């Protein structure tokens, strides 16, 4: 683990010092493969169940946290059509295609392979394509699809394994009911666990005596709790982790938590996201030499298989996946234009270039590798073929995405988004400042009439005007030397009061859908940093007074 952590930290440096550009996920896969080469001999056992428990819940939880629920629901039809309907079409269509082109493979094994190849990986996509390069509407749908199709693909894989091992007889009705139970149950489990956490959060904060480290660790355990509880009751742990993250983001559960917790969580989650993403791709690279050597040896022992056929199967299968994905997106565009004129899907706005971008953006990643390695050898004697083909498709999809997506995105300009967000941000700042000014006026009257705090009204008025002028981005006024400590403390109190009022207004604007989720996160981050600065100054003043 120490070696993997070190390699993850160095991978970002290597990508920047190279004379040519290579996406971080690919660099991490290459470094993992080099470490596993006989010369270095690093071997890490890949336990699929342990991998899914340790790495997938926090990553999906973080993605769900950053995904605005309103935009997710707004594109719900598009996401369901890709994350559910397209997955089913892929499993059936590509399953029969594999059964046809790979000699000696059973139909159940072919369907199982198609199931693990159906989920896409938004983490790999975001590592390959820089933020802001893909149009926002398209990226929202791709991320929503990746959050949901992991569960649908793995559920269908479980069905295929159960049929192959004789544990169930497949029927469309039973499979549909089981799928609905697993999916809805997973979502409910995630929401329920997060609801319970939110209700106990105040008690946790009180009992931990504002210990932000304890509170941060408890928050980090939340996605694992949602995943494990959901799996224990027999529903989708993946969807539970996603739903848990979305619930945290939607209802602003951390809104009224201590400042230290909010700041620490932002830093810790950013670090863990980078580390876990990196370990996922390095683990993928570590498995490559062993998978390649084992598959070639098994193919040489199998008289019905030739080694070169395995590589050809990878190319044919990836081409078939892209064809099915492109055809489905084009079909949804035609259906939306023809039958959904009142409330058309976003697909109707897609050009051929947009459809091609959405097709090649459907890269495969860690979930596919974990899924195929979880297939038991007892159920599928040709397991080595499944593992080799799945791994080959993962690498081929990443390479094609690296080469083709930049070409498709070359003529696309997304600069209008930056202007729109800047305008939206300015509008939110103006409205929040107005609310904060009104709140300060009330505080000024309360202080002036207070019998406990005997502060000169002129000082209150001067400090209030200074804070208000800063809120209006006017010329800063300078405090007099006389009563400097009193004025500075009063100003700091007023600023903290104003920041709390601004924070409440930002949440109110988001609830009214007047600003986007990304704008809300940026504005709240700015407030947290300013509040941290004010609190730190207050501590310094207290220390200086104590020393005197």
What structural class do you assign from the helix and strand content?
mainly alpha
Termini distance? 50 Å
Gyration radius, rounded: 27 Å
Helix content: over 70%
Total helices: the number is 21
Question: What would the average pLDDT be, to the nearest integer?
Answer: 80
Please report which band the strand proportion falls in: under 5%, 5-15%, 15-25%, 25-35%, 35-45% or over 45%: under 5%
Low-confidence stretches: 474-482, 540-548
- What profile does the largest beta sheet have? none
Quaternary structure type: single chain
Task: Name the overall outline.
Answer: elongated
List SSEs in N-to-C order: HHHHHHHHHHHHHHHHHHHHH
Tell me how many strands there are.
0
Describe the structure.
The protein is mainly alpha-helical and 548 residues long. 78% of the residues lie in helices and 0% in strands. The protein has helices at residues 2-17, 24-36, 48-54, 56-66, 69-74, 76-101, 107-117, 122-128, 136-164, 172-207, 212-232, 237-250, 259-301, 307-339, 352-360, 366-373, 383-409, 415-448, 457-471, 484-511, 517-547. The two termini are 50 Å apart. The model is unreliable at 474-482 and 540-548 (pLDDT under 50).
């Amino acid at each position: 683990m120490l070696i993997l952590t070190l390699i993850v930290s160095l991978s970002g440096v290597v990508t920047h010092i190279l004379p040519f550009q290579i996406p971080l996920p690919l660099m991490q896969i290459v470094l993992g493969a080099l470490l596993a080469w006989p010369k270095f001999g690093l071997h890490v056992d890949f336990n699929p169940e342990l991998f899914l428990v340790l790495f997938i819940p926090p990553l999906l939880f973080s993605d769900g946290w950053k995904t605005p629920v309103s935009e997710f629901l707004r594109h719900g039809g598009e996401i369901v059509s890709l994350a559910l309907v397209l997955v089913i079409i892929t499993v059936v269509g590509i399953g029969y295609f594999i059964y046809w082109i790979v000699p000696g493979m059973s139909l159940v094994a072919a369907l199982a392979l198609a199931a693990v190849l159906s989920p896409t990986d938004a983490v790999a996509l975001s590592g390959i394509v820089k933020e802001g390069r893909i149009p926002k509407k398209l990226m929202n749908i791709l991320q929503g699809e990746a959050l949901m199709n992991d569960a649908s693909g793995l559920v269908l894989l479980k069905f295929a394994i159960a049929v192959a091992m004789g544990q169930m007889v497949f029927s469309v009705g039973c499979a549909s009911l089981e799928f609905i139970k697993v999916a809805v149950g997973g979502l409910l489990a995630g929401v329920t666990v997060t609801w319970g956490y939110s209700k106990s959060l105040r008690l946790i904060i009180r009992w931990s005596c504002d210990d932000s480290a304890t509170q941060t660790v408890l928050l980090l355990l939340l996605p694992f709790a949602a995943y494990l509880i959901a799996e224990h009751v027999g529903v989708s742990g993946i969807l539970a982790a996603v739903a848990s993250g979305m619930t945290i983001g939607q209802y602003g559960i951390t809104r009224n938590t201590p400042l230290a917790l909010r700041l620490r969580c932002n830093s810790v989650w950013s670090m863990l996201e980078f580390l876990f993403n990196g370990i996922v791709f390095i683990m993928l690279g570590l498995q490559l030499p062993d998978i390649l050597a084992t598959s070639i040896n098994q193919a040489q022992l199998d008289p019905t298989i030739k080694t070169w056929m395995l590589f050809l199967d990878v190319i044919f299968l990836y081409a078939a996946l892209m064809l099915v994905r492109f055809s489905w997106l084009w079909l949804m565009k035609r259906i939306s234009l023809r039958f959904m004129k009142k409330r058309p899907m976003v697909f109707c706005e897609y050009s051929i270039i947009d459809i091609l971008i959405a097709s090649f953006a459907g890269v495969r990643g860690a979930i596919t590798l974990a899924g195929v390695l979880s297939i038991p050898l007892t159920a599928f004697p040709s397991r080595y073929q499944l593992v080799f083909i799945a791994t080959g498709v993962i690498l081929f999809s990443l390479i094609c995405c690296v080469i083709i997506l930049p070409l498709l995105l070359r003529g696309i300009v997304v600069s209008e988004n930056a202007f729109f967000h800047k305008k939206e941000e300015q509008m939110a700042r103006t409205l929040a400042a107005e609310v904060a000014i009104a709140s300060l006026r009330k505080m000024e009257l309360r202080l002036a009439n207070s019998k406990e705090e005997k502060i000169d009204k002129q000082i209150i008025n001067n400090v209030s005007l200074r804070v208000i002028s800063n809120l209006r981005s006017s010329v800063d006024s300078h405090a007099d030397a006389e009563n400097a400590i009193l004025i500075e403390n009063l100003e700091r109190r007023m600023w903290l009061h104003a920041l709390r009022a601004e924070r409440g207004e930002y949440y109110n604007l988001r609830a009214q859908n007047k600003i986007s989720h990304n704008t809300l996160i940026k504005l709240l981050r700015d407030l947290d940093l300013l509040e941290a600065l004010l609190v730190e100054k207050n501590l310094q003043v207290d220390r200086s007074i104590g020393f005197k």
